[in-house]
Amino acid sequence: MKTLVFIFSLLFLSLNSAQAASTGDVLINEIAWMGTKDSANDEWIELHNTTPQAIDLNGWILKAVDGTPTIKLAGSDPANGFYLLERSKDYTGALNNKGEELELFDNKDNLIDLVDASSGWPEGDHSTKQTMERKNATTWQTSQNPGGTPKAENSSPLAAKPRETLPHELAAVSELVPKTTTYFYPIFIAFALAVFSGIIILVLKNKVKIG
């Protein structure tokens, strides 16, 4: 009996340790700080579980440093999944359109993720309602479409436009072409003067002979 209790205790501890989150395991992944086309009040924040196992979010807190909003989480974030927090349903208090500093703490008050946009949201568009999506650990991007990608993978980065090489290549070629035009006119004028002078000399010589 004691052996069974010991085994169950080990299993319980292993399960608990597997569910314990570390910094970066759950990311603040997308922020609709501008609301939606339907209403500016329809703000939402998406969390992303970057691990291959579900993470228990009970007792977690997502809050702005200025105190609004402060959101108490419940439930779990599925493996490699997304967890959506909607202002109209899950929390109260508006995100400041001029920026916020957001912190995500687990149930042991460990800081799991931080977004410092206190000097202004780096991405997202208030007019078009395109959201601010996480691109990687330190950078963000504006969603390709209005409304963003709630509870789904973020937008793929837009393909870079092909490099317009033709004008540059033409410019490079033009630099290789000898710039003969600049020198052509002085040479032509000198040649014309020489011919004209020669004709005058011949005419004068003929007049002398005739005289």
UniProtKB/TrEMBL annotation:
<keyword id="KW-0472">Membrane</keyword>
<feature type="domain" description="LTD">
    <location>
        <begin position="14"/>
        <end position="146"/>
    </location>
</feature>
<protein>
    <recommendedName>
        <fullName>LTD domain-containing protein</fullName>
    </recommendedName>
</protein>
<feature type="region of interest" description="Disordered">
    <location>
        <begin position="118"/>
        <end position="159"/>
    </location>
</feature>
<dbReference type="InterPro" id="IPR036415">
    <property type="entry name" value="Lamin_tail_dom_sf"/>
</dbReference>
<feature type="compositionally biased region" description="Basic and acidic residues">
    <location>
        <begin position="123"/>
        <end position="136"/>
    </location>
</feature>
<keyword id="KW-0812">Transmembrane</keyword>
<dbReference type="InterPro" id="IPR001322">
    <property type="entry name" value="Lamin_tail_dom"/>
</dbReference>
<feature type="transmembrane region" description="Helical">
    <location>
        <begin position="183"/>
        <end position="204"/>
    </location>
</feature>
<feature type="signal peptide">
    <location>
        <begin position="1"/>
        <end position="20"/>
    </location>
</feature>
<dbReference type="Pfam" id="PF00932">
    <property type="entry name" value="LTD"/>
</dbReference>
<keyword id="KW-0732">Signal</keyword>
<keyword id="KW-1133">Transmembrane helix</keyword>
<feature type="compositionally biased region" description="Polar residues">
    <location>
        <begin position="137"/>
        <end position="157"/>
    </location>
</feature>
